[in-house]
Structure formats: structure tokens, C-alpha cells
Predict the structure.
Amino acid sequence: MDNISTKKEQSKKSRILIVGGVAGGASCAARLRRLSEDAEIIVFERGPYVSFANCGLPYYVGNMITQEKSLLVATPELFSKRFNIEVRVQSEVLAIDREKRDIKIKNVTNGEIYTEKYDFLVLAPGSSPIKPPLPGIDLPGIFTLRSIPDSNHIKDWMVEKNVKRAVIIGGGFIGLETTENLAKRGVGVTIIEMLPQVMPPVDPEIAEPLQEHLKANGVILHLSDGVAKFEPGPIHDTIIVTTKSGAKFECEMVLLAVGVRPEISLAKQAGLEIGALGGIRVTNQMQTSDENIWAVGDAVEVQDFITGEWSLIPLAGPANRQGRIAADVIMGRKSSFRGVQGTMVCKVFNMVVAATGVSEKTLLRLKTDGKEIPYEKIYLHPGSHASYYPGAKTITMKLIYGPKDGRILGVQAIGEDGVEKRIDVIAMAIHKHGTVYDLEEAELCYAPQFGTAKDAVNFAGMVAGNAMRGDSPAAHWSNVKEPGKFILDVREPSEFKAGHFESAVNIPLPTLRNTLHDLPKDKEILVYCGVGQRSYYATRILRLNGFQARSISGGMMTYKSLKNLS
Ligand code: FAD
């Protein structure tokens, strides 16, 4: 305890310098001041703004946010008056001298270079957009989006060049959010994505409805193909984007949204430890390999909450929490970062896609790497709220959990309403090491406008719980072609006629009890319906009558997504 209080005393009188004044840096600075009235705190920010809302940039480009000043969460004046924190904008930190404990700063407006001493240094330099070294990458009209000046350049270009066609390289959340915003300004958008799906954090069958939604909104999707080169077009100020497969797209503007890379130049120059993924290596107290230097946000590698693997998660929530934790630790508190779950949400036109925890893709990769985590999965398609109250929309969910203990490993969902609320609830369950049984029992708020008395979260737990208990074991569409299976469709004949799995036999649920004698006892019966509810009832009837039966998770709705992918 003595050590802690001594450190506290030192820290209170300390001089703390922070590099980077947006998510992680600004939250660290403000927290430091709340813990000490005596510390001297100076924030250095290379750009012209401190604490701006980079997450709002796509909406500023789309004129949904009309005023630049709305993006400014705080100003240097506010930091000074409210928190007694000095913020120096247009001030780039060039080097760290760990021996002397000082940093070299360049005033980017007048070129002046000077040094400042520190007791503690916090690095929150963020990440920079990846600009692959492709031919023509520096042509005018090719942009990245990271800062307010970036978005102003894009907005100016759009007006000056009367942009009608844009190509977005990369189907991650920055590319998708900007797609929506450009489309809303009347621009025809083509997305080129190297992977076979958009929104890489989720599994392909969850991304599939989003892809359909993008197409329905006029977006051209060009998947499984990378960009090879950019060339000036035949008309002044147009660009021709050529892909590796030889496809060509002409446009007036390109946005590169192929991911970000941690800003580690300062950390490298100072000889701090860098992780294998290229981020600054920190402890769970956010301390670097130098005990007087902390690092937070996009620039650092953090451990995955589920897998324990090092990962790079460039999201605002972790950056803010890490900034706060670094401040706590500098001020002698015993805070620590618990790891990242990658909880994310993205809205594109009317669709919302969200996820937390691990995806099946990640689990398959771990298996290939010899680090297998056993898992089971279920799909469901509950309503966003009571079906009798107007406006209910379907949510497609995929829940991944441990087959032995039911521990929740990850969940993904897509739909038009109520998606993020379900993911947030399950994110907290994952954080508390919850199981599918906890989801079954969760007491969640209900009125017809907001949910159902058994909420989608409860349903997810119940479907997985039923599978775990053996009441209704889950089968998947990947099982239907295995030998020795009898495929039973329990929907109404009209639904069956409209489309069914090729070898399926149709016995509608209401007639099932009277036709049990037609069903084989020597084969496993895989039952499906529209979304998985009637097949669950049928599976119960069959199992109670001595048949081996499993319900195909997610029914025809999941089948359609999988089929569209193949
Ligand atoms: P940043 O917030 O990027 O701040 C780093 C700052 O450090 C920069 O301003 C930079 O100029 C400065 N800097 C770097 N080097 C130096 C130096 N040597 N000297 C001085 N200053 C320096 N996340 C979400 O969770 N949800 C979203 O919806 C979302 N939307 C996004 C949309 C866009 C367009 C972008 C670009 C990002 C979005 N993010 C979103 C990601 C989120 O903004 C980042 O994860 C978060 O800002 C990272 O915080 P940070 O403090 O690490 O870095």
C-alpha cells in the first residue's frame, strides 16, 4: 500500500505529456485531471483539432451532419477552462528520448522545433489508413478518410468535379458508411472488395443479407477481387480503376478504405517493444516496455477476451476505456484492461449489422493454426418486437457457444430494427463469462413496441439451451447431404411448393402426429421449416416418439443466405 501512496504523491505532482488528442489521448487527459489537481498535463496534437468525432466523418461527407463544428467534441479552450489541461494543436511529436525523458516537438505552423520533459508519457497516436503501393495511387481524386481535413477535401472535390460515380475500395465499416452517404448525395457507388464478402468481422451468411440490401439500394458490389491499378480516365479528372481480374470501373472519385495500420513510428524510434501484428505491445495496465511510457487506442495490440490472442481493434470504445485506464494507473490506481471483444455495429441504408465476441471464421482459423476452441452454433430469426404491434422486423442472429459448458463465444446479428440492443446485452453476458442458460433466464424490459415477452436474446438462449440439453439438437444445412439422412420439411404445402430442399419430404406440422408410421426409425431425420420454430416442435414430437431427429438451425431463411453465397 505504501508503494501505491508514494506513487500517488509523485504522480500528483507529475508532468504528464500526451501524444495524440482525439479518442484515447483526450479521454486520458480528462481522466488524469479528475484524479489530480496538481499534475501538469499537456496534450500534443498534430492536426488542427483536438477531440473530434472521427466516427461522424462519413455523415459529414454525406451532409447528414452539416456543420464542421458539430464534429468538435471539445476545443483547446474548453480543455483549458474546464480541465486546466494545455492542448497544443498543430504540434507534431517527432521523437522520444527515453534517457532524458523528453520529447521533441515540431510546431507545424511555423516549423519551430523544441523539447519538453516528462515524468510520464502517454502515446495515443491512433492509426493511419493503409495506402497500398499500387500504380496511380497518388492520382488526384483518390482519398482516404481519417480526419476533418480529409472529409473537407472529399466534400470540395465532390462539388468541384460534380462527382456522379465513386469507387470505394474496401467493404469494411468506413467503406460501407461512406457508401450510404455518397449514395444519399446521388452518387452511384461501386464497392470493390478483395474478400468474398463485405463487413469482414461477421461470417459470410450474416453479411449476405447486407450485400443484397446494398444491391437493392443501387450499389454495385464487386467482391473477391483486388485493385491492380488506377489510371487517369479519358475525360478530364476521371479515374479508371482496374482490378486484378481485369475489370474496369470509371469514376470521378475513389475512397480507399482498406483498413488502418497502427501509428508506431514514435514507439519504434524510441525502441519500445512492438508486437507481431505491428502494434505497440502493452501490459493490461496499458504500460509499454518503458515503465514511464503508456500507450492506448488504435496504436496498441490488445488481447482478445475470448481467445487470448493478440489483436488490433481500431474502435473508439476500447480507445476511450484504455485512455481512462492509463490515467488511473499513472495516478496509482489498480485499473486494468480486460481485453477486447470486438463489439461493433454498422448501419448501411436501413440495415444494421452488429457483432461481439468471436466469429466462426476466426474459430476455423484457430483450428487450422492448431489452437482449436470447440464450438457449436445456432441461427434464429426472431422479431424485433411483438408481431401484433406495427413495424416489427426480422432479426437474423447467429450465436456461437461452447458445446460442453454453453459459454457464449460470440454473436452476430443483422436486421432493420433492434439489432444493436441484442448484441449489447449479449456483449455484457460474454464479458461476465455468461452461458446460453444465462440468456434463457435474462430478465429484459418488455412492452410490445420494444420486444417480446420472450425477447430475441431469451430465444437465442432457449434455442441453444434446447440443443445443449438434447431436447432439440441442432443440425445445419451442411449436414443434409451426409449419407443416411431423411430430410423432413414441416411447412405448409404452399410454402413447400414455392421452394424446398431437393430431397425433402413434406409433412406439414399439423399432420405429423398422424403420419409418424411413414417415417424411418433407422435413419436420422433432419427437420426444417421457415425459420426453425415449427421444426423445433416437430423435433420434439419425433424424439418423444422414439425417432432420432434434429432441427436444422435457422430453417429456410438461413438456407437462402447460404445458397446465395454459393
Ligand atoms: P485517434 O482518435 O485517431 O487519435 C490519434 C490522434 O493522434 C490523431 O488525431 C493524430 O493526428 C494524432 N497523432 C498521431 N501521431 C502524432 C504525433 N506524432 N504527434 C502529435 N499527434 C499525433 N470506431 C467505432 O467504434 N465506431 C465507429 O462508428 C467508428 N467510425 C469511424 C469512422 C471513421 C471515418 C474513422 C476514421 C474511424 C472510425 N472509428 C469508429 C474508429 C475510431 O475513431 C478509432 O478507433 C479511435 O478514434 C481511435 O482512437 P485513438 O485515440 O487511438 O486515435
